[in-house]
Design goal:
The protein is mainly α. The protein has a domain of 210 residues: Serine Threonine Protein Phosphatase 5, Tetratricopeptide repeat, CATH 1.25.40. The protein contains 19 helices and 10 strands. Helix 10 runs antiparallel to helix 15, helix 15 runs antiparallel to helix 16 and helix 16 runs parallel beside helix 17.
Amino acid sequence: MKKLTKSIYMIAALFLFTACENFLDITPQGQVKRDDLLSTNQGVEDAMYGVYAQMRSRSLYGAELSYSALDVMAQYFESYGNKKVEALLKYDYNYSSVESLFEGTWISMYKNISNVNSVLSCDLVKNATAYPAKIYRGEALGMRAFMHFDLLRIFTEQITLNPEATGIPYATEFSLNTPAFSTAAKVYDNILVDLLKAEELLADEGQYEGERAFMTMRQIHFNVHAVRATLARVYLTMGDYDNALKYANKVIAEGGRTLLKYNEIKGDVEGILSRKECIFGIQSSTDFYSNVYSDLWLSTSFYSLNPRPDYDAVYTAGGEEDYRVAAYYETQAVGSVRFVKLIDRYKVNGDEYNRPADVIQGINMIRLPEMYYIASECLMNKNLLKEAVEMLNKARASRGVTEMDVNTTTASMLADAINNERYKELVGEGQTFFNMKRHNMPITTIEGATLSASNNIYVIPIPDVEYEYRN
């Protein structure tokens, strides 16, 4: 059936704000409404809250780009009899429901990028260099780069393997015009331009903390530390170890976050933003809890996601205790094992009134341990092996895992350890598939088969809907 779309931007032209879902449309009247809304600080702030709200939709970080599709593809979960999950486990991107899944991700992400561009194009924010508008501009530029980066990691080749890789459209306007495709290299350039400008604009945000409601709870905003953490991710993906290390170290030293102690892991992210480690997260909604509850807590045939059968062996392969096993997995009375890392215990137990007042219900998007993994890998690639081992040991110790010997650990041993720590730590957060892709890893499936690395696995086809009406 013909899709009722002209391309991503024909769909993306509706601005979906919280509590004002139909505020904009593609008519002159809609444009007037948009201009009125974005003429005040409060209106722009409401618009930015709408951008963050859209990120928690199921097709984005409310499921598919966190614990669901991407983590199924990382071989964390299975679902007996669920044809879509079986197709994802086999990287069958032509299966109809998988095609629909990634079409939804493509459309939803570009729609939200359009929302960001609407903020960036309004007179109050455009070219802003003074507070508070420069904060709005910095957050919006950072979010535009963040969303394009994830699209790039999903739908294009790994840039270090093919510097000439084709890319995606980098959308910078709120417009009905379809943005042109750019090479992957050009998209990376655009991402860096936006992130570096965002860092400049947000560099002194701390001095304004608490001045407006918008300047509180900065974890749920794309704050300067989130910008720097994303720069660390981007530079690492590009193979620029100097700059990736620079920004990972900045977050570790200046981000105001600290690693947990191993006895603090259990419950740390169960439906809430980590109080010590969350650099950036999205304030969640009832829908996210419902998604997690039905997908991960319940054990429903042909639907729920079940942890891989050897999940415990992943954590005990070195013969050591790892406190994440008990924190992330639980055997229910019926004998089924559930992945509980993201489960909101207060809601499950009907005990929300006893939820501590200092926690934020939400989805953790970037946490501090990842910065230690990035820093360790960069140091290793710069032939600073002792320092690299010491960096990883800090993260391992916080999880109750025995530290590696700085004198006997080889580069190969360390590389394996970094990837293993990532696999154990980042389950449920949508980052592992990207790490596997970056290293062009062969994949051992849940069923024990070995799949050679290829673009057939690591590059999801751009949805047909994008091309239907292009000239």
